[in-house]
Amino acid sequence: MAALAELLQTVRQGGPAAVLIGGEAGVGKTRLIGEFGASAREAGARVLIGGCLELGADGLPFAPFTAMLRDLMRDEGAAQVISTLPGGSRATRELARLLPELAVGTSGPDQPAPVQPAAGEARARLFEQFLTMLERLAGLQPLVLVVEDAHWADRSSRDLLTFLIRYQKALPGVLIVATFRSDELHRTHPLRPLLAELARIDWVERTELPRLTRTEAKELAAAILGSEPDPELTDGIYHRAEGNPLFTEELLACPDGDCPIPDSLADLLLQAVRQLPEETQEVLRVASAGSGGTSHALLAKVTGHTDDELIRALRPAVTGNVLVTTADGYAFRHALISEAVHDDLLPGEHGRVHGRFAEAIDDDPSLVPDGRADIEKAHHWYWAHDTTWALISAWQASAQASHAVAHAERLMLLARVLELWDRVPDAAERIGADHVRVLEEAAAAAEDAGEGQRGLGFTEAALEETDETTDPVRVAMLLRQRHQFRWSIGLPGDAENLSRALRLVPESLSRQTRTLLLLDIAHCGTGLSGQQYKLWAEEALRYAREAGDLAAESQALNVLAFLNAGPGAMAAADSEPLRLIAKARALALEAGAYWPILKTVITESHLLCGAGDYERAAAAARQGIADAEQYGVARTTGTFLALNVAEPLLALGRWDEVEEVAERALDLAPPPLTRAWLRIISGRISLARGNVATAARRAAAGRPVLSGAGYEDQHQLPQAALDVEVALAAEGPAAAVAVAAEALERYDLSVSSPRYVWPLAVAAADAAHQARAAGAADADSGDDAEALLDRLRTLAEKLEVFGPVQRAWQLTFAATDPPADATPDERLAACDAAVAAWEAIRHPYQTAITLLAGARAALASADGGTGAANKRAAAARLRRALPLAEGLGARPLTEEITALARQAGISLDGGGANGAGTADGPHLTGRELEVLRLVAAGQSNREIAATLFISPKTASVHVSNILGKLGAATRTEAAARAHALHLFGTVPGIQ
Questions:
Q1: CATH placement of domain 2-104+122-208
Q2: Spatial contact of 522 and 534, defined as CB atoms under 8 Å apart
Q3: How large is the angle between the packed helices 387-403 and 373-383, nearest 10 degrees?
Q4: pLDDT of 696 above 80
Q5: How far apart are CA 355 and CA 598, in angstroms?
Q6: pLDDT for 896 beyond 60
Q7: Spatial distance between the Cα atoms of 278 and 280, rounded to a whole number of angstroms
Q8: The domain 926-980: what is its CATH number?
Q9: CA neighbor of 755 nearest in space, from 565, 523, 551, 478
């Protein structure tokens, strides 16, 4: 929409512009055109839309242009259309070939019959007349010409479209848009070379509408259903629809999203299939039973065809874009096409086809990729309805999936073993494992796959079948696992499980099990200073060292690092906690134990962020995400570490990067608590940028998860702070005071980490002061605000401060709520102290906020702000604050700064030395500054993309924008200009 609006603006200014929009069926091309057409009409443009018909070269010529003329005739009448042509009715002869109604009045009984021109001349006149008509129409108002479904265009329509685009410089005020189905463009399709030819014209852009990401598909589902959908439902639909909006909407019509494909959708999916030869359709029905892609050799074996016969049968399917070729075989272009074809199999055919696949793979495992034979057999035996072999192969395949770190696939296979267990009388003997063992394996797979709720169910079932008197160690480990699952899904703490487990396993019974239990129970005390927790961690460390267990020793040191950090949850460089973490990581690497490695990264990045060492915190967490992807836990630990990347980047003001990190993590469907936290962070940015409705939605999305979770200050308190700020922006100070007061009632802040209490206290104090200011009009509001401030002051007096970040929050609280008898100079000094604290840790947003507060204090000084000195002091602060707010895109803060300056008669020109540009220099966004920093370091677009976790194409766009803003022709020139303008080292958050 934004790109089309920009192109419309281009043609308004007299420039040529055309865009070719591709995308598969159902991706949203028609909806896009409809929305853009409506907005273009509202902006004063005329929109003519014509669609091509699915009739091929033998269909109606010029069909889309005939449709445009018919609409024009309906809206304006024939006389008005004729009047747009020089010569009036005499000039419409060729246009009448498209629409006979235009022939009325072109000849009379006394006029000689017109000389019929040669076919080539008539065609040229037609093209010229259509061009002239568009030119005249565009002279009255901007014109948008849309040709839809150009993949069905006949030769004449393609030629006229090409003619209009090539002569577009003679059509000022006309935007030409053509849409086409990219999935219809087989190798010999006539539109393919034409698109390539047109895309080489300077003013023609070609773009593809992509499928929705997982996050976008969830947003679509929420909009359609009217409420936040169940993650399992949306994950299942996303897996089937693969991000296609139309398919997503159709599947959402099912109550559980798992019903057969609706008939209307099946007809669309099978449309291309049914046009293929019967021999090809028969092979496709067999291929649809394959799991994803199928090798040529496997398909030949199952169908019984020779290589030549199979190639001959499949070539029409590949040419028609029903199948796509892979490295060694074929795959359906979309999973739902395969599903629709498979549903066309007769009931008896399903089992037989799957049985043939299973037998073929059993005879020759090389027919499938390495490491996939057991998994493929498990799939086919299950759908062949051979329960015994389905159970055996699923158990064997679960081990193969575990080796391949395919955790979700392993969980599915183990769940299938449990499903089939009662249908195979000698199941335990068949697989060499009892039922509890399968439940334990399923719980472990659920943990790795991030399916905490399912894992808890497996664990509870295993506990019911196990006797602690005969098997205490097994029960203890299950209790430990139950505790971990309850914590992961946010249920109230269940530390009693660990205490009971510890009692079941004395040192004499199993030191190894006791070590694990001690580590878990000690970890419950992280963030506290209780001596007992340290004693438990030290006992675990002693056991691990005596046993030579490097992984357990690493975990014990990591827990001790966290305990030594204490309630401040922070660690400065070269502190004891960081030294312990470094040692723990070295041991974990030596042991090759991925989970202890990732735990050290989580701890290190968390403590560094708490200390305000934001760059190092983000870098450590980024490396952890890469490790998590390598170990196959990107969806769980990887998305959790995304929080540890996003939080410091948020502080550094690299908000665009935060949004990208959060979106990437949300696309992986993280566990509920992680998802809620990511939305809180995104909500804070939305609010700071003035998108109050978006911030409110994101805050509301996390609230149900956290309200049902056990209390952890790092979860509930940031949510509460966001709720206060959203209420302030959306409903006003009185509502924000009520939200803050309710949070203080619900949570015991006296035993919570100051790291999370201080931001909530500042947000609440700000709301209270705004409410008190409004108290003259609403006495009750003023009373509530005073009561809240009394509670906050008592809290602040007792609240400890650990490190520079908490000190900055404490100073901000003091500046927000100064003593009633403070002098104007004291109030200004309090604001300046907060500014200095935020600048020291390079936090641009809070720096700008406190600079604004300082400017207000300066203007409110002894003489009422009319003095020249006070005005200069305010101006200096506002000029420092403005570029910071602009660089962040913090619109409300920017507006407050400019409004105060206007009110005080202060000019803000020339004050950009500390911002993302200068008064006469470029104003770069935070992300552009980050990209520019990497450009100056000599990184290529691909290297920049890898560093920032964005696509090379996105990096290229950023670099192009930067070169344009800097007026630089090369990357070297851009770097030199950046240094000359002092763009590095002067902006908080940018080095």
A1: 3.40.50.300
A2: yes
A3: 150
A4: yes
A5: 42
A6: yes
A7: 5
A8: 1.10.10.10
A9: 565
Residue 784: name the closest of 820, 812, 745 by CA: 745
Q: Give the C-alpha separation, 357 to 341, whole Å.
A: 17
Which of 22-36, 229-243, 339-353 is most confident?
A: 22-36
Distance separating alpha carbons of residues 334 and 248, to the nearest angstrom: 13
Nearest one of 472, 470, 465, 441 to 454, comparing CA atoms:
441
Q: pTM of the predicted model, to two decimals?
A: 0.67
The tokens for 727 are 């209420």
User: CB under 8 Å to 727, separation ≥6 — which residues?
Assistant: 735, 736, 738, 739, 767
DSSP state string for 72-117: HHHHH-HHHHHHTSTTGGGGGTTGGGT-GGGGTTS--TTSPPPPPP
How far is residue 194's CA from residue 151's CA, in Å, rounded to a whole number?
A: 11
With 0-12 / 13-18 / 19 or more C-beta atoms within 10 angstroms meaning exposed / middle / buried, residue 840 is middle
In this prediction, residue 452 carries a pLDDT of 85
The secondary structure of residue 612, as a DSSP letter, is: T
**Are 672 and 703 in contact, with CB atoms under 8 Å apart?**
no
For the record, the structure tokens of 916 come out as 């993302």
Q: Which two structure tokens, joined as six digits, stand for 119?
A: 């076919």
Amino acid present at 319: T
- Tell me: pLDDT of 114 over 70: no
Distance CA 97, CA 60 (A): 12
Residue boundaries of the structural domains of the chain: 2-104+122-208, 214-259, 926-980
Q: Which residues contact 510 (CB under 8 A, 6 or more apart)?
A: 473
State the SS3 of 154-181: CHHHHHHHHHHHHCHHHCCCEEEEEEEE
Query: Do 397 and 414 contact (CB within 8 A), yes or no?
Result: no
- Residue 552, both tokens: 């357990």
Phi, psi of 214 (to 5 degrees): -60, -40
Strand partners, 831: none
Tallying the residues shown for the chain, one arrives at: 991
Hey, CA dihedral for 669, 673, 676, 682, is it positive or negative?
A: negative
Tokens of 766: 């700000």
Locate the DSSP E strands across 419-566. none
Q: What is the pLDDT of residues 446-486, one digit of tens each?
A: 988 878 889 999 999 999 999 999 999 899 889 888 888 88
Place of tokens 């992807």: 629
List the 329-332 sheet strands across, edge first: 294-295, 329-332, 323-325
Condensed to tens digits (0 to 9), the pLDDT of residues 578-613 reads 999 999 999 999 999 888 999 999 999 999 999 999
The string of DSSP codes covering 584-627 is HHHHHHHHT-HHHHHHHHHHHHHHHHHTT-HHHHHHHHHHHHHH
Mean pLDDT (the chain) is: 85
Alpha helices, DSSP H, located in 114-230: 119-140, 155-166, 191-199, 214-225
Structure tokens at 469: 């008197």
**Among 379, 287, 403, which residue's Cα sits nearest to residue 337?**
287
174-181: strand order across its sheet: 46-51, 143-148, 174-181, 17-23, 204-208
Closest CA to 788 of 810, 817, 812: 817
